[in-house]
UniProtKB/TrEMBL annotation:
Its EC number is 2.5.1.75. Signal peptide: none annotated. GO terms for biological process: tRNA modification. The gene is miaA. It is an enzyme of class 2 (transferase). Its cofactor is Mg(2+). This is tRNA dimethylallyltransferase. Monomer.
Length: 303
């Protein structure tokens, strides 16, 4: 059906060129861009999150770029609610919207909908956070392995927040966290066309290393220093900032901190690809593919 609303979702690892492609597609389809990059939501974080430049933001309408403060509590459920509402409004003006971002869970929240979990006693999370602070991640992983082996094998177990979330559901409900992940996809009022950008691993890592060097040259150090008062907030527990906080604290030399940022960003890119490769609906293109070729593919999917 020609008038059917379309969401073009662009995914891929960090530093692969998603922003540039999203702008070309938005200009071609006269569409707005919705960011699904959870690090770019925060007003106070610009350099370390690779927020689109003012020139890029002026090239096409952008939404969910630096729209909240690091001091606000904003989660993927909030984003699902707000972004779906915004996409509905945008579709009233144009039947195509472009979404771009490498935050897999946030992308999934829009394209497929989130799994919903029962309310559990908040003291469980408090106790788990305390255990993590005092004894580290290993005791939590051991618990998760016993309580929900399936979740242990499928979630990002190097992410303390995800591990604590899974455990609090296991403890609070007496059922495995993974048992709540079986909800069928929600029906959306639009058709999603999923585009992935990729390159060989050496090229991705090289682009990441170059991007980090550019961030440092552009003033990431000063940006991180200005955020020191907020370093314990969840929004700042992210690559590019947490390593510099440790440098300010005397735990790293600057050279070591920069090296850690590069290493942790490369690991993040690897996790992104692992997540997105599970989605068989994504059509993958080499990052150097001409935008016109991708537009041609999208038009065949629309029709």
């Amino acid at each position: 059906m020609i008038n059917k609303n379309i969401l073009i979702s662009i995914v891929g690892p960090t530093a692969i060129g998603k922003t540039a492609l999203s702008i070309k597609l938005a200009q071609h389809f006269n569409a707005a861009i919705v960011s699904a990059d959870s690090r770019q939501f925060y007003k106070e974080m610009t350099i370390g999150t690779a927020v689109p430049s003012l020139e890029e933001q002026n090239a096409a309408p952008h939404h969910f770029i630096q729209h909240i403060s690091v001091q606000e509590d904003y989660n993927v459920g909030d984003f699902e609610r707000d972004a779906i509402s915004k996409i509905e409004v945008l579709h009233q003006r144009n039947n195509t919207v472009v979404m771009v971002g490498g935050s897999g869970l946030y992308v999934k929240a829009i394209t497929n909908g989130l799994d919903y979990f029962p309310e559990v006693n908040p003291t469980i999370r408090t106790e788990l956070n305390l255990l993590f602070e005092n004894e580290g991640l290993n005791p939590l992983l051991e618990q998760l392995k016993i309580r929900d082996h399936k979740a242990y094998n499928t979630i990002a177990i190097d992410n303390p927040k995800r591990v604590i979330r899974a455990l609090e559901i296991c403890i609070g409900t007496g059922q495995p966290y993974s048992s709540f992940l079986t909800d069928p996809n929600k029906q959306r009022a639009f058709k999603t066309i999923k585009i992935g950008l990729n390159a060989d691993r050496a090229m991705i890592y090289d682009r990441i290393n170059q991007r980090v060097d550019i961030m440092i040259a552009n003033g990431l150090l000063d940006e991180a220093k200005s955020l020191l008062p907020f370093k314990n907030l969840n929004a700042l527990n992210t690559v590019g900032y947490k390593e510099l906080f440790r440098y300010f604290n005397g735990e790293f030399s600057l050279e070591d901190a920069i090296s850690e940022i590069k290493k942790n960003t490369r690991r993040f890119a690897k996790r992104q690809l692992t997540w997105f490769r599970k989605d068989e609906d994504i059509k993958w293109f080499d990052y150097k593919t001409d935008a016109e070729d991708i537009i041609t593919y999208i038009k065949t999917k629309i029709n």
